[in-house]
Each structure stands twice: as C-alpha cells, then as structure tokens.
C-alpha cells in the first residue's frame, strides 16, 4: 500500500504564496520612526553592517515630534487625523531637506500600509526614495520595505530587483532578510537560487542556539522537495517532528520514508502515530491497518480496525469489514472473522465474500453453514471463482455424508481446467468412501442375520 505522497500532502495544505506570507511576518521596519531618527541620536549604523556611508542632513526636532504624533494617532485608530497632520506638514515641504522629506513620505507609507492601501504605499515609498541627503541606513531600509510591499502585491520581479540592489549595500544580511530573499526566489519558481538563502538563515539560528521558526523549516522543506533532494528533506522533517511534533509532520515523514523505499521506518512512523492517537480519520486507520498486515502484524491490525468501528471512525463498508476479517484470519482467529465477514458479504454486490465466508465455515468444521454461504455465492452471477465455490460445497456436503450431492458439486468443479485435477481426486475419494460405508453396512447386516 502506498501512502499519500509528500508532495500532494504538502501542496494540499500550503499554497506557495500562503507559505511565504506565513514566513514573512510582514511589517516593514522603516515605516516606524526609530530612536535613531531623533536629531540627538547617532545616525550611524552598526559597524560592518553597511558597505558605504555618506554625510547626511539631520532632521528638525519639531518635525520629528510631529511625525511621531501622526504615527501615534494612527496607532490609536485615528488614521484620518494622522493623515491630516501629515498633509499639514507636506504643505510646508519647501522648508524640509531631503532627509526630512524622506521621513515624511515614510510616515505616509506606514499609514497607507496599515490601511492596506498598497498602491498608495508604493507611491509613498518611491517619493521617499527619490529624496537626496538621507542616511544610507534609511535608504536601504526603504528599499527593503518597498520590496516587501511588492511581495505582498505579488510583484515578485520588482521585489527581487530591489533586493539585489539592497544586497550590494549590506555586509551581513540578517537571517530574516535571507529568508525573505529566499521567499522571493521561491515565488519566482527558482528554488535552486532560493535555497542557499534559507539554508544560511537556518544555519545562523542553529549556530546561535536559537530555535528555528517552524515556517522556515516548512519553506526549506518545500525547496528540497522541489529539487528532489529527498534525504535533506527527510532531515528537515526529522527536525520538525522533534521541535514541532504535529500530526501533519509525522504523516509527511512517513511519506518521505516511502519515497526513500524505507518501508520499515514508514511502518514504524505510522504505528507511532496510531499509538499516540494521532490517527483520527477512517482512511488513516485503514491505511495503518494495511501496513500492519503487510508487516505481519495481523492481530494489531484487527484491533485497530475494531476500535475504529466501535468509535464510529472507520466506515463500515464491505471492503473495510473484509479487511478486518482478513486480519483475524491471518491471526488464526477464524471465529472472530465470521461476524465482519457476514456483514461484509451482505453489503457486497459480488459473491466473493460469501465464497470467503464459506471457506471460513469450512475451516471451522461448520459444514451446514458452509453450504449455505456457498449457495449464496453461487446465486451471484458476478462470482468469478465458481470452481472454488463448487469445491468448497462438495467438501462440506461430503462431511455431512451427503455423498451424491457432494459428487454433483465436484463434477461441476471438474468442468474448470484449474480445478480439474483436485475435483477428480475428490470424486475418487468420495466414491471410495461411499463404497467403504456401503460395504461396512452390508457386513453389519450379515452379522445380524
């Protein structure tokens, strides 16, 4: 039995766009006025972060305070008042230097973004970036934030173009930035270029002893799978199961074991999921039961199915009931196989299940019930192994000492090439037994006389 492949399982849960938005955790940093925006603060960036620095104009204290007030009004839910305050400042735009205008338009971008007015956000960013004399850190942050807005708008080509320029100015992108760049490439169907960025981000977190975000693992795993690097995908799934133990990750790990032809580990993973009560759907319980049968665990398979039926999880279809019966028969529990097999036979449109039921009764030496079951099977025109049905019927009738009817059944079976030899042997045996009993009867009669 093949489980649902990892690819279909994964794609059924995450679209490419939705996965990336999960990872993004989107909020452009340059939209907010940071402490370094203060005219009293050092506008220089941390050592080694940016490749170039330029002399920049400072920002007026009163303007800075008014921009902060506009941001606070927006955060309090009064975006109309916030925009009105910015409009008043914009009316005096000729008084401001390039740095101040860049901050003004950055504040507009922040409020537009909060209102989900993305085209207006883009235009505000462009106006901010067109200004001269701003700190290099601000320009790079504006570029990065605009790239994020393009991403939200699904304009991935423009987002990538900005990010490539941004990378020329940044010495050491943060892990979060590397993840973002990887996402953009991933959206452009370029997992090969995306992969190094995500790997670098994950490696950085592990080196620092930080817990890697769950969604980074998901994105990394999707890329490995796209590139058919199944063994690395497998290692990511092990990390997910270890750090974020969830049902879907166990299921994906099981599917990966199947892809890698490691059936024993696939089986162990499925059994572990069942033991942890993570399987709660009919198809899942049926699937793990089939795996148990394939791995010679019929008793466990039967118990799983019985529990599923009792809890109204496993559907009582003829196939599922037959699976339960097969499990009990493989476990040499023929008596326990009868009830599900009877029910399955009554639900099936074909005669094979009555044939199997007849065989079960025969194995238990319940001859009369075997004959009744086989009679039901033979009434069904869709029965394929009619020769087998005649053989079983003949054996049951023989044990009931109904020799003539037994011979008639074996003669019917003899008409089929695949049963010819066995039926011929049984006919000879029945005749000899019939003759033996006749001779014994005559001997007893003569002794009485």
User: Unreliable stretches, pLDDT < 50, 5 or more residues?
Assistant: 1-55
> Based on helices, strands and strand pairing, what is the structural class?
mainly alpha
- Termini distance? 69 Å
Alpha plus pi helix count: 23
Rounded to an integer, what's the Rg over CA atoms? 38 Å
Order of helices and strands: HHHHHHHHHHHHHHHHHHHHHHH
Reported for the largest beta sheet, the result is: none
Helix coverage percent of residues? Answer: over 70%
What portion of the residues fall into strands of 2 or more residues? under 5%
How many beta strands in the DSSP annotation? 0
Shape, please? rod-shaped
Q: Could you tell me the mean pLDDT? A: 84
Helix and strand layout, with pairings?
Layout lengths: L5 H8 L2 H9 L36 H15 L3 H12 L7 H17 L3 H12 L6 H17 L3 H12 L7 H13 L3 H17 L6 H13 L3 H14 L3 H13 L3 H13 L6 H13 L3 H13 L7 H13 L3 H14 L4 H12 L3 H13 L6 H14 L3 H11 L6 H29 L1
Helix pairs in contact: 2-9, 2-11, 3-4, 3-5, 4-5, 5-6, 6-7, 7-8, 8-9, 9-10, 10-11, 11-12, 12-13, 13-14, 14-15, 15-16, 15-17, 16-17, 17-18, 18-19, 19-20, 19-21, 20-21, 21-22, 22-23
